[in-house]
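Here is one chain, start to finish.
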Amino acid sequence: MKTLFIILVLMALLAAVIATFVIRREQENNIGNKFLRLIRKFDSWQMMR
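Its structure:
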């Protein structure tokens, strides 16, 4: 009974760590994409001038 509880707790912690890692990576990609989009807008604005 104790080992089952410990295994369940460890699995929950592992799932939380993996979810946090995936979410953080997605947010970093999103920030990078926004930055790249801003640079592209600036470049096209420079071309129009």
